[in-house]
Every structure is written in structure tokens, then in C-alpha cells.
């Protein structure tokens, strides 16, 4: 085929048309990737915003326990229930265990545990002597490093719930404190500490944003067995 000189005028138009077609194909090919990337970025920003909102909600719930007045509350441990009041780190609780009267009280630095009027060693149940205020401070101290999970309210009629887990380093420090000055962290005990989890559940009324219950789950999961203790604070 021969191209006559007078036909060469349409060559630039042909090249321009092919160039435009190539750009159009490239644009159509790249557009889904751009769209996916934008969606991923939007989802990431939405997740970050949701995390901030959840943390702020939890902070507001926990702030209700930081009060200048005495707050009545109940503690349920296994099948036993204690009733009393707390104010910051101070508290007083009374209840019955297997027919025996239990009285626990903290005034200042002093902690008293009485069973049928006889003094007992308070170190026997250290975590049970933490007030809701102190548990709230534990959570608030780690709030920027934990990711709250929304939990279903199958057993909590009309309440909304969050679940948060303390970081392993905080769990270890807390257990060391609870075990007292005689605690020795040998290799075997270190392995146990790493398998221990402290998980909180916070239940609140969505209409009033009032905290109604704090559940403290202490879980130990080892190859030789599992153990779980639970404290339930009801306000």
C-alpha cells in the first residue's frame, strides 16, 4: 500500500485518536484500583473515628465512678453477694459465705477482713479488695493502648456493653502487686503470668449513658487446665 502525499494530513489525527484511546483505556483500567484505595482509606478513617468515639464513651462511663460521694454497690463472687458502699479507694462490704458473716472495710491505708467478727489476712483475696474506682483507674490508665469491643447484650436486657482487655505488661504488674512482696518470679511463674488475662465488661443504659455494671473476668489458660474467677459490680 502506498500513501499519497495528499493523504498524509490525517496521520496526526490518527495518532491523536490512538493516544486518546490509550489514555481512555488506561483511565478505565486504573479507576477500580483508585476506587478501592479510596474505599480502604475511608474505611480506615472510619475505624479510627469509631475507636476514638468508643474510648471517649468508656472514659465517660468510668468517670461516673470518680465521685466525692459514697456510692452503693454490690459485688457478686461465684454464688455469693456482698453489699456496701465505696468512695474512691475507701469501701465497706458485708455479706455471708456458707453461713458465716463477712465484713470487709478499708479506711485509709488499713484494710480489715472479719469473718464472724474474727480478723483475717486481707492478702487472701487481694483483687476482691479493689474498689470499682480503682478498677476504673486501671482501665483509664491503659485506654489509649487498648481497643474496646462492642459485645452483645443477650443477658443484659436493654443495656449496651463494651469489653476491654488489659495489656499483658499491666496484667503482670498487677498480679505481682496482688501477690505481695514474697512473690518470686521464677521461670515457671513467668509462664503462668503470660497466660493470665484480665478482661473487663462495662454495661450501661443507652438512653442515660449511666454505668450499671462492671464485670471483672480473671482467666488463666494453661496446658494442664483452665480457671476463671469473676467479680460483678452492680450500681
Describe this structure in words.
The longest helix is centred in the first third of the chain and has 53 residues, at 11-63. Mean pLDDT is 75; it is low at 1-29. The protein is built from four helices and eleven strands; from the N terminus they run H-E-E-E-E-E-E-H-E-E-H-H-E-E-E. 35% of the residues lie in helices and 35% in strands. It has helices at 11-63, 132-141, 168-179, 187-194, and strands at 71-77, 80-87, 90-97, 100-107, 110-115, 118-120, 149-151, 160-165, 196-205, 210-222, 225-234. It has an eleven-stranded antiparallel β-sheet with strand order 6-5-4-3-2-1-11-10-9-8-7. The N and C termini lie far apart (94 Å). It has two domains: 13-61; 62-234, outer membrane lipoprotein receptor (LolB), chain A (Clam), CATH 2.50.20. It is an alpha+beta fold. The chain is globular, with a radius of gyration of 30 Å.
Q: What coarse outline follows from CA principal-axis ratios?
A: globular
Can you tell me the CATH topology of the largest domain? outer membrane lipoprotein receptor (LolB), chain A
Number of strands: 11
Helicity level: 25-40%
The SSE string, one letter per element, is HEEEEEEHEEHHEEE
Identify the CATH architecture of the largest domain: Clam
Beta-strand residue fraction: 25-35%
Distance between the termini: 94 Å
What is the topology, as strand order, of the major beta sheet?
6-5-4-3-2-1-11-10-9-8-7
State the name of the first-level CATH class of the largest domain.
Answer: Mainly Beta
State the secondary-structure class: alpha+beta
Mean residue pLDDT: 75
Q: Biggest sheet, in brief?
A: 11 strands, antiparallel
* Tally of individual domains: 2
Amino acid at each position: 500500500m502506498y500513501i499519497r502525499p495528499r493523504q498524509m494530513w490525517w496521520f496526526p489525527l490518527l495518532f491523536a485518536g490512538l493516544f486518546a484511546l490509550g489514555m481512555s483505556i488506561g483511565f478505565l483500567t486504573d479507576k477500580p484500583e483508585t476506587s478501592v484505595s479510596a474505599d480502604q482509606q475511608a474505611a480506615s478513617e472510619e475505624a479510627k473515628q469509631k475507636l476514638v468515639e468508643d474510648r471517649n464513651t468508656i472514659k465517660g462511663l468510668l468517670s461516673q465512678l470518680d465521685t466525692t460521694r459514697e456510692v452503693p454497690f454490690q459485688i457478686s463472687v461465684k454464688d455469693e453477694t456482698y453489699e456496701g458502699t465505696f468512695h474512691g479507694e475507701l469501701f465497706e462490704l458485708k455479706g455471708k459465705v456458707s453461713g458465716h458473716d463477712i465484713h470487709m472495710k478499708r479506711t485509709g491505708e488499713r484494710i480489715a477482713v472479719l469473718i464472724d467478727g474474727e480478723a483475717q489476712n486481707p492478702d487472701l483475696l487481694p483483687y476482691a479488695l479493689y474498689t470499682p474506682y480503682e478498677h476504673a483507674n486501671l482501665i483509664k490508665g491503659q485506654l489509649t493502648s487498648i481497643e474496646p469491643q462492642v459485645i452483645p447484650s443477650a443477658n443484659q436486657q436493654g443495656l449496651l456493653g463494651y469489653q476491654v482487655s488489659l495489656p499483658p505488661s499491666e496484667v503482670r504488674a498487677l498480679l505481682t502487686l496482688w501477690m505481695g512482696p514474697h512473690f518470686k518470679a521464677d521461670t515457671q511463674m513467668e509462664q503462668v503470668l503470660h497466660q493470665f488475662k484480665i478482661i473487663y465488661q462495662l454495661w450501661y443504659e443507652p438512653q442515660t449513658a449511666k454505668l450499671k455494671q462492671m464485670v471483672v473476668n480473671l482467666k488463666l489458660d494453661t496446658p494442664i487446665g483452665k480457671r476463671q474467677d469473676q467479680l460483678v459490680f452492680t450500681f
